[in-house]
Write a structure and sequence with these properties.
Helix content: 25-40%
Number of strands: 6
Radius of gyration: 16 Å
CATH architecture: Roll
Strand content: 25-35%
Largest sheet: 6 strands, antiparallel
Number of domains: 1
CATH topology: Thiol Ester Dehydrase, Chain A
């Protein structure tokens, strides 16, 4: 577990700092309205509300916005566990698989419970010097808890060559 994770969490959960981060580094996430609902070393939840800016012609949330929120729910672990890490770690999404079960309207929450898998993969990559991949699952549910979509995001981690 990266000791800097708590510092990362403080920065990323500050509403103004996170809004500025999204605006400067992830403008599509800013426009789509992604928000952090919950974060700790084990679980993250990213929320997004269906609105005019993120809808498709069928009056539901565009699949790419759902994918973005799902990726962020897994990526918060990746960024948090590589934040100010020594040695530095490179990270990359290498695969995304999505399944859609219900129209996404109103508030959708994407939850990932794979924080320990990410931490272990990064630790193993550091220990062995070999790149490591990990598949993280993000589940999107609506306000009444119904399954809307599900994503498998595959991350790759390896020690940066300096």
């Amino acid at each position: 577990m990266n000791p800097q994770f708590d510092r990362f969490k403080q920065v990323i959960t500050h509403p103004v700092k996170f809004a500025f981060f999204k605006l400067t580094k992830l403008p599509a996430a800013f426009i789509a309205g992604l928000k952090i609902g919950y974060i700790d070393a084990h679980k993250t939840t990213v929320t997004v509300r269906h609105n005019w800016l993120n809808q498709n012609p069928f009056k539901s949330m565009y699949f790419a916005v759902q994918s973005m929120a799902a990726e962020m729910s897994t990526g918060l672990f990746a960024v948090g566990q590589t934040y100010k890490r020594n040695p530095p770690i490179s990270m990359l999404v290498v695969s995304v698989e999505g399944k859609f079960f219900k129209k996404a309207t109103r508030l959708i929450s994407f939850t990932c419970n794979d924080g320990i898998l990410v931490s272990d993969a990064i630790d193993e990559s550091i220990a062995t010097g070999v790149g490591k991949t990990v598949v993280c699952k993000s589940v999107g549910t609506n306000e009444v808890g119904e399954l809307v979509s599900e994503f498998l995001i595959t991350w790759s981690f390896k020690v940066k060559q300096l």
